[in-house]
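Exercise (ungraded).
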Amino acid sequence: MNLSGRAIDAFLALAETRRFALAAKRCHVSPSTFSQMIGRLESQVGARLFDRDTRNVSLTPEGEVFSHGAHRIAAEMRASMSELRERANRRIGRVTVAVTPSLASDWLPQRLAEYQQINPGIALRMHDVTSGRCLELILRGDVDFGISAQPGQDLEFENHLLFMERYHLLCRKTDPLAKLPEIRLRDLKDRAFVHMVRTGSVRQQMMPLLSTAQVRDSGMEVANFGTVGGLVAAGFGVSIVPEHAIGLCLRPGLVAIPVKSPKAVRPVTMIKRRGRSLSVAAAVLWDQLKLSKRSVG
Amino acid sequence: MNLSGRAIDAFLALAETRRFALAAKRCHVSPSTFSQMIGRLESQVGARLFDRDTRNVSLTPEGEVFSHGAHRIAAEMRASMSELRERANRRIGRVTVAVTPSLASDWLPQRLAEYQQINPGIALRMHDVTSGRCLELILRGDVDFGISAQPGQDLEFENHLLFMERYHLLCRKTDPLAKLPEIRLRDLKDRAFVHMVRTGSVRQQMMPLLSTAQVRDSGMEVANFGTVGGLVAAGFGVSIVPEHAIGLCLRPGLVAIPVKSPKAVRPVTMIKRRGRSLSVAAAVLWDQLKLSKRSVG
DNA sequence: GTCAATTACGTTCTCCGTAAGGATG
DNA sequence: CATCCTTACGGAGAACGTAATTGAC
């Protein structure tokens, strides 16, 4: 049992035209070839599908039955092929990315908007998640790729650095530090510090630097940048946040000042599962983001 | 675009096993051939369907999309093939026959019951119709074949004589004719006669014989044998009906007496459209009836 | 080094088209 | 005899298997 698409097409053409010669032309084959194709099909399905003499062609009862199936098979084939083609042309599709909250709010939306304008048929979904969960979603295949400051292991992931993001000190305008154009980490010695939770990439990356700088623990340990802003504004201490998180933290009475340290930067990285290819739509977004990285630097 | 059933099967096998070697075995081809089959399929659909290295095999996003269609295509193919096979084996099917009322009530039911017992999966339908309408239904393809006393023209129909059916005189027991063992047509001279409608085969066949016999017209002209019985019983006259219609006419006070005349017989004939083959189920019924004709003679 | 997928290559076989054959009106 | 489907036959191309190659662990 091996029905080919061409055989199905031949069958349908003959069922419709009821002329071998005409159906053959429609299928772009010679009449003889067409006759053989029908004959082969009939032997494959094990039943005569057409009653025919040199003058008339008509479906047998078995042919009538088969024609229903043939129509459905042909329709499914057409649908499958056209769906693939439409996805290849990015007429339809879906792209899901996992992104750290800072970039999800500040940097990525603009890029996604550009993408959406060029590819209106593609449904975009974004998960804003912590760095750890980002890798998990990538590994499980729940997202096409991720963007985070914490690259995955090279064995399982493919990482592409977009740009280095500077950290900024977040403090009240009344703070003495607020007057400086740049902050050095040692300026924070003995200052109360509002921490992010340990599972976030900010905390994990800053941990060694902060202990070197001998900051004082405010006791606060929060998950969201918005909360950091609130705590700093309320006087619980200062904090350090990535550049693209500033918008989430800042409020009247607060300032953000760049931290001057070659280590106080974090690698904003696109991450995908190694060995798994991206969908066409996702690959296009990936490439677009790769090219647009200069626009922030 | 020409998807073959084998390619679909190969795709599904690989998508399920995620092993080329294993899927190749399942498809009964060598690993090398299988690899080529997948490669060909991918080039036909215009997209890479599997991510693979020598260690791991997994579906690409396009492969995921295609797998839905592939499952449906394979299911439709299986369904079409198995339906044809089941019809060939007469596990399922339908047979519709058009039959003249007399045979539909007296002769055919027993035959159909035998057929139904042997082929319980076949749905039987029967139209009891006049001879003219019988041919019409055959021609239109509304029935698989017909049984009537009026064969169709050989150009359009294929006729198979089942048996010759004798005509019987229908009269009251009090009628002088009722005492005879056989009737000759000339015995009916000047007798009031209850006619069937002109569209029926009985009337058409008997017309010349009756005018030769110089019967008298009762003025009654009816479509159903049951009505004939009623009219004869009520004294409107006598009538002549086919042997198998006797059961429809007879009632207390009436008798049916065979007509002795080489012309007072009618050919009970199976009729099908020339050049059109019967469905397997219908052909089996056709053949069964052909063989069972002796049982009546 | 071992195992799995792929590529190379020669063979086989399927499939196509040209041309002859046969049936029908 | 004209038309249309089918069969015959030869060549082109596809598909298969064996065997060598590449790549991953």
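Further reading is listed at the end of the chapter. For now, observe: Chain A has a mean pLDDT of 94. The CA atoms of residues 36 and 293 of chain A lie 60 Å apart.
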